[in-house]
Design brief:
Elements: E1 6-16, E2 22-33, E3 38-42, H1 49-57, E4 64-69, E5 72-73, E6 81-85, H2 96-106, H3 111-124, H4 140-152, E7 158-162, H5 170-185, E8 190-195, H6 198-204, E9 207-211, E10 218-223, H7 232-235, H8 239-267
Parallel strand pairs: 3-8, 3-9, 6-7, 7-8
Antiparallel strand pairs: 1-2, 1-4, 4-5, 9-10
Bound molecules: adenosine-5'-triphosphate (ATP).
Length: 268
């Protein structure tokens, strides 16, 4: 049997903390992601979600345990990985076209090829006609579309997303979630999507991984057997969705409460 696309096996990440001691952000975390699978990772604030992503991206080496991509130990940034973060990497001094073309250019494609690919993706994310605009001339939602095109233009096989839509208003956010599902559905890419928002996690994913309060480890994994294609706002109103929500929230709530208590005692 082929190995999972992404596999964390009892992965642990420790950081040196200011006082010379060590802070464990992730402890013995095990999870798998299959090719083409959309996995959402939820957990309380500061529990170690971003650190978990950085282990997969190779930006941080694991302190113990194993992190495998395509069955091989991650030692540096693996090929075919795309990222999208809360604050996007759109360059304000470059036009939309130049922003989206920058990835293919960086990978050595000719200017003409990079621009042609960029123009295609700009149109796929619904921004045809805005190629010459600069980021400050766009709305927050449009800038997210640019960021999405910037990420997808390199046709990643793994897409790592860290709360990419959390800064958007509720309606734009729902639009972007639908856009992401539409674009992802034809791509065959696996997605690891970190979010605070359980609604978002369920609406988008095939599987929701609930992490414990820090240090993060896997508390529960829930399959999301909702049909695709999905329209997120309609989906949220269905009985099936609400039942999944209350089930998963039951698991997450205990961790959120623990994190709040910890936070309160840190501040006290
Ligand atoms: N480079 C680093 N050096 C030291 N400590 C770090 C580093 N990166 C993260 N941490 C610590 O690890 C813990 C987990 O952080 P992380 O950002 O992974 O959590 P998170 O769940 O993504 O947070 P949030 O919900 O706020 O986005 C935190 O206590 C954080 O301070």
């Amino acid at each position: 049997m082929a190995p999972p696309l992404i596999e964390l096996i009892r992965a642990t990440k420790r950081f040196p903390s200011g006082s010379g001691s060590v802070h464990t952000a992730v402890r013995e975390l095990s999870m798998t992601v299959e090719p083409g699978q959309f996995v959402a990772v939820v957990g309380p604030t500061g529990c170690g979600k971003s650190t978990t992503l950085s282990l997969v991206s190779g930006l941080q080496p694991a302190s113990a345990g194993r992190v495998l991509v395509h069955g091989t130990e991650v030692k540096s940034i693996p090929d075919g990985v795309g990222y999208m973060f809360q604050t996007d990497a759109v360059m304000p001094w470059r036009s939309v076209l130049e922003n989206v073309a920058s990835g293919p250019r960086f990978r050595g494609e000719s200017k003409a090829d990079a621009r042609a690919k960029a123009a295609d993706w700009i149109s796929r994310v619904g921004l045809a006609g805005f190629e010459k605009y600069y980021p400050h001339q766009l709305s927050g939602g449009m800038r997210k579309r640019v960021a999405l095109a910037q990420t997808l233009v390199t046709e990643p096989k793994i897409l790592l997303m860290d709360e990419p839509f959390s800064a958007l208003d509720v309606q734009t956010r729902a639009l972007m979630q639908d856009e992401l599902l539409r674009l992802w559905s034809g791509s065959g890419a696996a997605v690891v999507f970190v979010t605070h928002d359980l609604d978002e996690a369920i609406a988008l994913s095939d599987k929701v991984v609930v992490l414990t309060t820090g240090p993060a480890t896997v508390k529960d994994v829930f399959e999301i057997p909702l049909e695709r294609p999905r329209k997120v706002e309609e989906l949220r109103l269905t009985e099936e969705f609400r039942a999944l929500y209350s089930n998963i929230w039951e698991s997450l709530r205990g961790e959120v409460d623990k994190a709040r208590q910890k936070g309160a005692s840190n501040v006290a």
